[in-house]
Amino acid sequence: MKTFRNKKAEYNYYIQQQIEAGLMLQGTEIKSVRAGKINFKDSYARIEQGEVWLYNLHISVYDKGSYNNHDPERPRKLLLNRREINKLQTKLDEQGYTLVPLELVINDQGLAKIILALAKGKKKYDKRESLQEKDRKRDQDRVLKSR
């Protein structure tokens, strides 16, 4: 099982809830994902006409793909139940919530799953606090390791 994490998501957002969704990919896209050629920068999900779409997830062009290669920045459909989509829609209607991908997982059956987070954006001072907390934890680990 391979996992690719969006490291910036926890820095930029408060994570409220996590949802696992299937990801519809083309043939050359899944090959690029397995090779680890994926970039989460500025990616987000949106509900449009009862379907969930993932935007700005960059999956690099497959090296050995010919004319069948995919567009690296194309919107990708996420697979969720109607009930889950309705729950997400009610949460997203509240002020400040957004859907952010946390990690992409290729499970044992070879299927691509994406873990979405229902998140609220952090302010600049909140991000500074996150960095200070990270530094404190690193210092504590150093002290404990040196003993």
Protein architecture, described:
With 147 residues, this protein is of the alpha+beta class. The protein has one domain (2-122): Small protein B (Small Protein B, Chain: A, Beta Barrel), CATH 2.40.280. 33% of the residues lie in helices and 36% in strands. The protein is built from four helices and nine strands. The protein has helices spanning 7-12, 27-34, 82-92, 124-146, and strands at 2-5, 13-23, 38-39, 44-48, 51-55, 58-59, 76-79, 97-106, 112-121. The chain has a seven-stranded antiparallel beta sheet with strand order 1-8-9-2-7-5-4. A hairpin with a 5-residue loop joins strand 8 (97-106) and strand 9 (112-121).
Salient structural properties:
single chain; 147 residues; alpha+beta; Small Protein B, Chain: A; 7-stranded antiparallel β-sheet; two-stranded antiparallel sheet; 4 helices; 9 strands
Summarize the entry for a quick read.
With 147 residues, the protein is α+β, with helices and mostly antiparallel strands. The protein has helices at 7-12, 27-34, 82-92, 124-146, and strands spanning 2-5, 13-23, 38-39, 44-48, 51-55, 58-59, 76-79, 97-106, 112-121.
- Give the rounded overall mean pLDDT: 87
Q: How many distinct helices?
A: 4
The CATH superfamily bears the name Small protein B
* Architecture per CATH nomenclature, i.e. the level-2 architecture: Beta Barrel
> What is the straight-line distance between the termini?
35 Å
Percent strand equals: 35-45%
Radius of gyration: 18 Å
